[in-house]
From TrEMBL:
Residues 30-391 form the Sulfatase N-terminal domain. The chain crosses the membrane at residues 164-181, 193-215. SUPFAM superfamilies: Alkaline phosphatase-like (SSF53649). This is Arylsulfatase D. It comes from Takifugu rubripes (Japanese pufferfish). Gene3D superfamilies: 3.30.1120.10, Alkaline Phosphatase, subunit A, Helix hairpin bin.
Length: 566
C-alpha cells in the first residue's frame, strides 16, 4: 500500500513544508494504522488510477493518467517485466518529487520503484528515481516477485517459459533422433548439417534461458542511488533494512524541508516469513505480513513524533491497487489479499475491488481527528496537494488530480472529481460520475474482463485479467451501477429501475469526449501525448546491454555491506 508521510512546518508562509511517503499493500490487527485513522482524516472512496502497480504508480507520481506518459499497455503485459528493459517513466515527465525538489526540498525514495532504470545503455539511468526528482534512493528499482525467493515459482511469462522449455526438449530429442538414425545408417544425413543444427539449438536455448533462468540476478536487486549494492538481494532481511533507511533519512533531514516516499515491499507476494511475526495473526502468513507492516508504520510514526515533528507533519497512507484475488496456493492459502464487499481485484480494469484503496491523512493541529470523507478522491490528487502545500505556483502540464486540502480541512464538502476515468491498459474501461447535488456515484462500464473459469470471481486460468480481444466482453448499452446504493456492483441499473438512466449515459458520453480531447490521441507507437509507448514488447523485454550489474557483466553478484548505510 502506498502511504505518504509528509512533514510541513507551519505556518506555511514562514517555513517550507516537508514530505514523507510509504507504499505497500494491506488487511487485520493493525493498532498503529488504526491510530493514524483516529488521529487523522479517513477517505472511504479513494481511487487508484489503474488496477496494478506500474501504471498506477506512474499516475500517482505525476498526477496524470498513465496513458499521458506512455505507461498504459496495449497487450497482455501490463507492468514492466525486466529491469534490463528500456521502458519506464519518460525523462520528459514531471513527478511531485521533482516539483518539490525545485522548491528546495530534500527528497528521498526508500523501497519499490518499478518505473524503469535505463533507456539506451547500462548506466544512463534515464528512468531512475534520481532523474525523477529524488535526491536519494535506496531500495528495489524493480519490484518483489515470486522469482526472488527459491521455490516460489515464477511470475514472469510463466506460460512462455513452459512453451520454450518444451520446445528445447523437443529440439534436443529431434537432434538425438537424427544422430541415431545417421549412426544406424537408416538415412544419409550430413554430419555438417547435424553440427550446424546442434549449434543453432544451443544458441536458441541460450537466448531464452539466459533472461529467464537468472531472473533473481537480473531483477531482484538493491540499489543505493545509482549503485547496485546487492545482487541478488537477500529477501529475509529486506523489511528491516528498508525501515532503517527510512528512519535514517528523516533523522538526517529533520531540520530542513524534506519529502520521503517510503514504498514498502509488503504486502506483495512472495510473502515475508519474519520469525518475529510468524503465527501471530489470525489470518495466516498474509495476516502475519500485515501485522509486520503495522509495526513498521508504528515505528515511522514514533520516529516523527519523537523528533517533535508531529504537528508539522502530514502523513498519508494509501495503496496503489486492490488485492490480487487469483494469488493463492495450497500451502499458504489466499496470499494476494481480499477486497471486502468490492467486486474484482488487481488487474481487473474498473471493477471497484482493484481500484478502491485505503487512505488516511494525519496532520495534528491542521486536520481534525476522526473526520471521514466519503467523496470520490484519487491517488493523483497527491501531486497538486503537495504543490499547493509547497507554495509551488509555477505553470504545469494538464493534471488529472485536484488539491485535497480544502476537502480534508472541511472547507468544502464536495469533491472536485465530478468524473473519473478508469483504464485497463490504454483502453477506457469505465467512467465514474458524481452528479452535483446528489449522493449517488454512478459507474458506467463499457467492457468487463471475462472471468475464468466461468462463474469465478477472477481470471484464475491466466492469473491476471486481460484488457482486449477475446478476454473482455463489450456492453451495449454499458453496464451502469450506483455505488452509493450498490458498492459491490451487483445490481445493474436499467431505464425501469433508474429515472436518470438516459442522463447518466449522456453525461458520461460527453465527459469521455472532453477527456479524449485533452489527450489529443495519436497512433501507436506513440501515446496520447506524443510520448513513445513504454509498454511495448520491444521496450519490455530483457536487453543485456541495459542490465544493472555489480561486477563485470554477466558475472553480476554482490552482498551489501551494512557499514556502508548512509
Amino acid at each position: 500500500i502506498p502511504s505518504e508521510c509528509a512533514s510541513f512546518p507551519a505556518p506555511l508562509t514562514s517555513f517550507k513544508p516537508s514530505i514523507v511517503s510509504w507504499m505497500f499493500w494491506f488487511s487485520c490487527r493493525t493498532p498503529n494504522i488504526d491510530r493514524l485513522a483516529a488521529e487523522g482524516v479517513k477517505l472511504t472512496q479513494h481511487i487508484a488510477a489503474a488496477p496494478l502497480c506500474t501504471p498506477s504508480r506512474a499516475a500517482f507520481m505525476t498526477g496524470r493518467y498513465a496513458i499521458r506518459s506512455g505507461m498504459g499497455s496495449t497487450g497482455r503485459v501490463q507492468v514492466l517485466l525486466f529491469l534490463g528493459g528500456s521502458g519506464g517513466l519518460p525523462p520528459s515527465e514531471t513527478t511531485f518529487a521533482k516539483r518539490l525538489q525545485q522548491q528546495g526540498y530534500t527528497t528521498g525514495l526508500v523501497g519499490k520503484w518499478h518505473l524503469g532504470v535505463n533507456c539506451e545503455r547500462r548506466g544512463d539511468h534515464c528512468h531512475h528515481p534520481n532523474q525523477h526528482g529524488f535526491s536519494y534512493f535506496y531500495g528495489l528499482p524493480f519490484t518483489l516477485f515470486n522469482d526472488c525467493v527459491p521455490g516460489e515459482g515464477s511470475d514472469i511469462l510463466a506460460d512462455l517459459q513452459k512453451t520454450l522449455r518444451s520446445f528445447t526438449i523437443f529440439l534436443g530429442i529431434g537432434l538425438a533422433t537424427l544422430a541415431l538414425v545417421r549412426r544406424c545408417g537408416l538415412l544419409d544425413i550430413s554430419l555438417r548439417l547435424l553440427v550446424v543444427l546442434f549449434f543453432i539449438s544451443i544458441l536458441a536455448t541460450v537466448l531464452w534461458l539466459t533472461p529467464f533462468k537468472f531472473i533473481p540476478t537480473w531483477n531482484c536487486i538493491l540499489m543505493r542511488n545509482q549503485e547496485v549494492v546487492e545482487q541478488p538481494m537477500v529477501v529475509e532481511t529486506l523489511p528491516r533494512r528498508l525501515l532503517t533507511e527510512a528512519q535514517q533519512f528523516i533523522k538526517r533531514n529533520v531540520d530542513r524541508p524534506f519529502l520521503l516516499f517510503f514504498s514498502m515491499a509488503h504486502i506483495h507476494t512472495p510473502l515475508f516469513r519474519n520469525p518475529a511475526f510468524s503465527g501471530k495473526s489470525l489470518h495466516g502468513l498474509y495476516g502475519d505480513n500485515i501485522e509486520e507492516v503495522d509495526w513498521m508504520i508504528g515505528k515511522m510514526t514514533e520516529m516523527v513524533d519523537s523528533l517533535g515533528l508531529a504537528n508539522n507533519t502530514l502523513m498519508y497512507f494509501t495503496s496503489d491497487h486492490g488485492g490480487h484475488l487469483e494469488d493463492s496456493n495450497s500451502r499458504v492459502g489466499q496470499q494476494g489479499g481480499w477486497n471486502s464487499i468490492y467486486r474484482g481485484g488487481k488487474a481487473m480494469g474498473g471493477w471497484e475491488g482493484g481500484i478502491r484503496v485505503p487512505a488516511i491523512f494525519r496532520w495534528p493541529g491542521r486536520l481534525a481527528p476522526g473526520r471521514v470523507v466519503h467523496e470520490p478522491t484519487s491517488l493523483m490528487d497527491l501531486y497538486p496537494t503537495l504543490k499547493y502545500l509547497a507554495g509551488d505556483t509555477q505553470p504545469d502540464r494538464h493534471l488529472d488530480g485536484f488539491d485535497l486540502m480544502p476537502l480534508l480541512e472541511g472547507k468544502i464538502e464536495r469533491s472536485e472529481h465530478e468524473f473519473m476515468f478508469h483504464y485497463c491498459g490504454i483502453y477506457l474501461n469505465a467512467v465514474r460520475w458524481h452528479p452535483p447535488g446528489s449522493d449517488s456515484v454512478f459507474k458506467v462500464h463499457f467492457f468487463t474482463p471475462n472471468f475464468s473459469p466461468p462463474g469465478a470471481g477472477g481470471c484464475y486460468h491466466t492469473h491476471v485479467c486481460q484488457c482486449f480481444g477475446k478476454h473482455v466482453t463489450h456492453h451495449d448499452p454499458p453496464l451502469v451501477f450506483d455505488l452509493f446504493q450498490d458498492p459491490s456492483e451487483s445490481r445493474p441499473l436499467s431505464p425501469e429501475t433508474e429515472p436518470r438512466y438516459s442522463e447518466i449515459l449522456a453525461q458520461t458520453a460527453k465527459a469521455v469526449e472532453r477527456h479524449r480531447n485533452t489527450l489529443a490521441i495519436r497512433q501507436p507507437p506513440h501515446d496520447a501525448t506524443g510520448v513513445s509507448n513504454q509498454m511495448t514488447w520491444e521496450k519490455i523485454l530483457w536487453k543485456p546491454w541495459l542490465q544493472p550489474c555489480c561486477g563485470t557483466f554477466p558475472f553480476c553478484g554482490c552482498k551489501e555491506d551494512p557499514s556502508h548505510s548512509v
